[in-house]
Hints:
This protein is an alpha/beta fold. About 25% of the residues lie in helices and about 20% in strands.
Amino acid sequence: MASVSVDEAMRRAIELAARGLGTTSPNPVVGCVLLDEDGQVVGEGFHAYAGGPHAEIVALAQAGRRAKGGTAVVTLEPCDHTGRTGPCSSALVQAGVSRVVIAVPDPNPVASGGAATLRAAGVRVDLGVRGEEAEAGNVAWLTSMRRGWPYVIWKYAATLDGRSAAADGTSMWITSEAARIDVHALRGTVDAVLAGVGTVLADDPRLTARNLRDGSLAIRQPLRVVVDSSGRTPADAQVRDGAARTWIATADAVGADPDGRVDLSALLAALHQRGVRAVLLEGGPRLAGAFLRAGLIDKIVGYVAPRLLGAGPTALVDAGVTTIAEAIDLEFVDVTQVGPDLRITALPRKREG
Ligand SMILES: NC(=O)c1ccc[n+]([C@@H]2O[C@H](COP(=O)([O-])OP(=O)(O)OC[C@H]3O[C@@H](n4cnc5c(N)ncnc54)[C@H](OP(=O)(O)O)[C@@H]3O)[C@@H](O)[C@H]2O)c1
């Protein structure tokens, strides 16, 4: 078998890491490829679920004695602490690995220090190989660990003229089944789905991750969160149906902003405390406006249908913009056709000053 460069091995490790997306929280996604002294792949692994073996341990188990003198190529700095599993840094040292190549350092103060432990044991450590790519694959976890609140994706569906419902309030369905299937897949990658009580009262959504063809529930369900200052969510709302965990986040439980509404920063901090690293904000327009006003949105995923309504509520309300100079500038990072619709992914541009 041909030998593999460290760069190629890292590309593979990043691919492996992605297989854990949506199931590892509150842990990161991690992939690992083990090369022997001749650069042959002797082990591969990824972290599949919290509490399960780490990527390095899976790869070491595959490699057995062939790990000795070899190189571990890993997307995130190996952990240095004993949590539900033992420290990966020690496992790599014990296996006799002579070099560890890391894409991204671990920002988690509890688990970091693996690189120092490895170096102290005489292992060569290189940092930063395909760092940007590995960072992108783990962006929600890394962002949330660095700043202490979850990564927030705002998702909405609208017509080409930006309407989220018709003038009479009907909105089901603006986009195609293909787009809705895509949304359910997106729900499967996050830890919590958020909606304002306005949406719950208007649409009575279930907010579960489902297979839309047969209605079956995904094995792992995100926490459902209704942002509901004074507890107006009806007792028989579908969001309370027991199909997944639900938190009715009231101002009393979370803390109130100056208007007496749920304090959104406190809400995100509370979610972080509960192990939530990625949040999908599913609206509606008023809550999305409040999140944008507060600068709490990290990514926007808009599903745009090739339809026009010409009247009716817009996808976003009161985002704090009154003049064009205050417009929230975005960068489109992806445009993909999903059935007849477009899925547009955008990142808010950082404001100067
Ligand atoms: N096309 C789409 O993608 C999409 C998605 C979702 C919804 N929708 C549509 O949106 C409509 C509902 O919109 P909406 O704007 O009334 O509902 P919303 O944004 O879901 O909920 C707004 C409510 O959230 C509560 N809230 C709690 N804390 C808040 C805070 N800090 N800032 C702002 N709001 C806070 C407020 O009620 P309290 O003060 O009582 O807490 C507020 O009235 C429905 O017609 C639905 O079909 C469309």
